[in-house]
Structure formats: structure tokens, C-alpha cells
Amino acid sequence: MKDKFDIDDLGFAAVDYQRYRRCGYNEVIYGSGKTGEQIIGIMANMVEHNVGRILATLIDPEKFKEISEAFPDALYHKDGRLVTLEREPAEPGFGSVAVVTAGTSDIPIAEEAAGTVAFYGYEVKRIYDVGVAGLNRLLSRLEEIRSAQVVIVVAGMEGALASVVGGLIERPLIAVPTSIGYGANLAGLSALLTMLNSCAGGVGVVNIDNGFGAAMLACNILRLHGSNAQ
Q1: pLDDT at 226 (0 to 100)
Q2: pLDDT tens digit sequence for 89-144
Q3: Residues with pLDDT less than 70, the chain
Q4: Whole-angstrom Cα distance, residue 158 to residue 182?
């Protein structure tokens, strides 16, 4: 067995076991574009290297069928298209993340974020369908949003929800534009530009549909927050 911090070249993938030492978390498998056989190969290699918690993103149901035959204890989180193999418990994290969506159509991206945050041991507060078309819905959940240490706002269409929430809270806010919307939404570009041009302070923006990236940023913030609180 190789050292935990080696890089293992499988031919189709170079599995990076140095990442834990550099970044504090193991490599996550990006499933889009990979075959089920390739994903299984990477997971098997990680198990061989005693990685007790494995996360794979953007996994469709057909690929999960293949994965589940090789790893019957793998779990499929279909709303977020995540696969987890958890043979060790997560270390409990300090703090919580509120994942807020403008609409129901944004939930798949939100669930990718929420599932990733939960995988790393942090509490998740799901606050869905509170977009700017009905601000009363948002205001009725405002205290719950404020109770979290980090807020992720997921919105398509014009993406205005991130700026509105950013003007109402004193928390780090991570905005996720989604590709949800009619033609002039430009597959999420309009929401991205709105979020980048937010007049609210403290709003950071990740790429279109990148719930995973938002979650990782939130976890890094919480990790720092937890270390300072102890």
C-alpha cells in the first residue's frame, strides 16, 4: 500500500492523496464526463488508501446503478446528484450554513451545496422558494437565515435574491447563479452578472450552477470560524 500522501496514477486519473495535507480534505470525484467504470476505479483506489469518506458529484442515476453494484453501502442523494461512501463518521463541525433558494427550480443546485456541507459535518438549514417575487416569504424566514454562520443563496432568472439577502444580514454570503430562466437569462449569465454587480457588501460569487464550490467555500469559512471559537 502506498503512503497516504502519494499521487496514484491510474492511467485515466491521477488520484491526489496529497490534497488532504495541503487543503484539509480528500479529493472529491467530479462525476460529469467520467464513466461509471472510471468512478468505481477511483473509489476503489481511495478505499485501498484507507479514505473512509468519499464524495462524488454530478452523478446521474445510471452511473449510480453501476457504483452501487461495486459498493452496496454507497448512498445516492438524487436531488443533489451526489454519491457518498461513508465508512467513517464525519467529524462534527462547528457552525451552520443556511442554503436559500429563490425558487423550487433552483433546488437541485442547492441540494448539491447542502449535501456537500452535510458530508463535511456541518449543520444545514434549508430555506427554499423565497425569491424576490414574494418578499414576504423571505422576511418570514429572515431570523432563521440570520441564525446561520454562513449563507449560500442560489438563484436563477435575474439573480436578485443574493443582493437582497446581502442587505439584510451580517454574515458571509456566497451567491450561486443558476441556469434556470427564460432565453435572456442566457443559461445563467444574467444571474451571474447581477450577483457580481451586487450593491450589498460581503457577497462572494461562484460559477453558474456550482453548488459544490459554494459549499466548499462555506466549509472553509466555518473551519476557520470553529478554530477561532475554540
Answers
A1: 67
A2: 988 888 999 999 999 999 999 999 999 999 999 999 999 999 998 899 999 999 99
A3: 1-5, 226-230
A4: 10
Domain edges within the chain: 7-86, 96-229
Q: How far apart are the first and last CA of the chain?
A: 36
The candidate with the shortest Cα–Cα distance to 116, out of 79, 156, 62, is: 79
Which three three-digit cell numbers place residue 200?
Answer: 450589498
User: Rounded CA gap, 97 and 202, in Å?
Assistant: 16
CA distances from 5 to 25, 120, 190, 220 (A): 12, 20, 42, 21
Q: Residue-wise over 147-163: b if at least 16 C-beta within 10 A, else e?
A: ebbbbbbbbbbbbbbbb
| Distances in whole angstroms, Cα of residue 52 to Cα of each of 26, 70, 96 | 10, 16, 23
Cell of 203: 457577497
Write the class of the CATH domain 96-229.
Answer: alpha beta
Rounded to whole angstroms, how far apart are CA atoms 2 and 5?
Answer: 8
Distance CA 164, CA 145 (A): 13
135-150 tens-digit pLDDT:
999 999 999 999 999 9
Ramachandran angles phi, psi of 51, nearest 5° = -80, 115
Cα(122)–Cα(225) distance, rounded to whole angstroms? Answer: 12
Residue 221 DSSP class? H
Cell of 38: 472510471
